[in-house]
Design brief:
By secondary structure, the protein is mainly α. The protein is built from six helices and no strands. It starts with 6 loop residues before the first helix and ends in a 5-residue tail after the last helix.
């Protein structure tokens, strides 16, 4: 399936990603002092912004006219790996803290990171090997990334005030 068949989806996701980048940025700026008072929240805020920006970049690149699918695969793979590593670093550093987050939250956070980036990485690899199903996997990963980012925005806007 050519990239042009996915143009409407990727265009919609560019808009959604851009809106969520703005929402998370506003959430951070409104609650900056409160976010900085928790050791783990600045990293979570940065991770959320990075994941959303990665989704925005992947969807934007997918809209380049005449782009070969393997080129999108290269971009998506690089961004998904870097985003996952950023999240893994945050996760591992939080485990070393005396205030370490409860195990159920660690599992949920880890599952969210894997659930959003693994489909993008898998889809990217498929595109590198010319498998058209890769676009479906990338799309699924982008949707999950946006959902996880909404959850993080909720934490940064609302839960932080409890």
């Amino acid at each position: 399936m050519p990239l042009t068949d996915w143009a409407i989806f990727f265009a919609a996701e560019v808009g959604a990603s851009a809106a969520l980048v703005g929402l998370v940025t506003v959430a951070i700026s409104i609650n900056l002092a409160r976010i900085l008072s928790f050791e783990h929240l600045p990293a979570r805020a940065g991770e959320s912004l990075f994941a959303l920006t990665s989704s925005l970049a992947i969807c934007s690149v997918a809209l380049f006219p005449g782009l070969p699918a393997p080129a999108l695969g290269c971009v998506a793979l690089a961004l998904s790996v870097v985003t996952f590593m950023f999240g893994a670093r945050n996760h591992l550093s939080s485990l070393k803290q005396p205030w370490a987050i409860a195990i159920e939250r660690q599992v949920i956070g880890g599952a969210a990171r894997i659930g959003s980036m693994a489909p993008i990485a898998a889809g990217a690899l498929m595109l590198l090997f010319h498998a058209p199903a890769g676009l479906t996997w990338i799309a699924a990963g982008v949707v999950v990334t946006l959902a996880v980012s909404v959850m993080n925005a909720w934490v940064l806007l609302v839960e932080i005030m409890r």
